[in-house]
Description:
Largest sheet: 5 strands, antiparallel
Number of helices: 13
Number of strands: 12
Oligomer: single chain
Strand order of the largest sheet: 4-5-8-6-7
Strand content: 15-25%
Structural class: alpha+beta
Bound molecules: flavin-adenine dinucleotide, iron/sulfur cluster
Radius of gyration: 19 Å
Amino acid sequence: MNSFTYTRADDVAIAVREVAADGAAKFIAGGTNLIDLMKENVMRPSRLVDISRLALREIHPRADSGLRLGALAKNTDVAYNEEIERRYPLLSKAILAGASPQLRNMATVGGNLMQRTRCCYFYDTATPCNKREPGTGCSAIAGFNRAHAILGTSGYCIASHPSDMCVALAALEAVVRVTGSVGERAINFAEFHRLPGDTPNIDTNLRGDEIITGVDLPAKGFAEHHSYLKVRDRASYAFALVSVAAALEMDDDTIKEARLAVGGVAHKPWRDQQAENLLNGQSASRENFQRVAEALLRDAKGYGHNSFKIELAKVAIVRALSQAAFREGHS
Ligand SMILES: Cc1cc2nc3c(=O)[nH]c(=O)nc-3n(C[C@H](O)[C@H](O)[C@H](O)COP(=O)(O)OP(=O)(O)OC[C@H]3O[C@@H](n4cnc5c(N)ncnc54)[C@H](O)[C@@H]3O)c2cc1C
Ligand code: SF4
């Protein structure tokens, strides 16, 4: 049993001060990930700073015609928000593809961004894991790695990022707003999560004393042509083997702009703008979609159990792009 102290913060400044004062302190929001990790002895914070009552639950319009999601807005409230459903249906669908209604009622925007990998060795404290205990090794590389990454991996960690919501936010080019001891800053979504490199214990570029206060959605929501396709072992309540957020701006049959983010394949939602650009100015055709899928997976590497993901990701990309372009039924 690990003892810890618990405090509830009344405002953002107090929350930041509490966490800055203790390197082993953690914020707790919905608790749907952190509590599990504490029960499994994977995370052992000395102090929990409860941020669930901070006034960060609102979803409101921004001057640039975008929307701000408060960091404590519940996943359910975001997914069923009228403006999100109308202007950012890609985000709504990605959130609803994840977890269960009960979990989404508790889970928050900030917590979703910060949730940790579902690598089974990360959860099993009897096994070596560089993410949990730096320097101990990676059990997954030569172990059971069916759910693991095929892009951007390192010799230290091949874990994949588990979020659905983050895949849509990557495609929408959201911006993460944070506040810390030295003030506020904005982090482009592409720079928020990190690749494992030789420090897989560090998931994101959020500093230890910083809190996420919100996520900004740019005005462009790709409501006309989008798809969130999630491939998983069960039809619900399962993490993605591969997921694809596809967003297109079309002029008749011609693609003016393409955004593609892939989940379940890397330590962060995977974007490859070089591959995406192959679609700009091209017609929406299966051949062109296949070309992009091949380009995006060109450096993919399988580790045995997860090698099937390379083909799976290509097929999923082609299907998601077809759904987005031709407004075919989503799944
Ligand atoms: C059985 C199960 C199935 C699931 N399936 C899916 C799925 O299919 N797809 C999917 O995307 N997710 C899935 N999830 C994950 C779920 O979405 C996350 O647990 C949830 O989003 C975490 O949010 P939370 O508010 O509960 O975070 P918490 O558990 O409270 O916190 C998680 C982490 O985030 C940090 N944190 C929280 N808020 C902030 C903030 N504002 N600033 C800085 N740090 C913060 C905490 O310190 C902690 O380290 C599943 C979870 C479970 C338990
Ligand atoms: S893949 Fe990463 S999280 Fe999983 S055992 Fe290896 S180091 Fe740990």
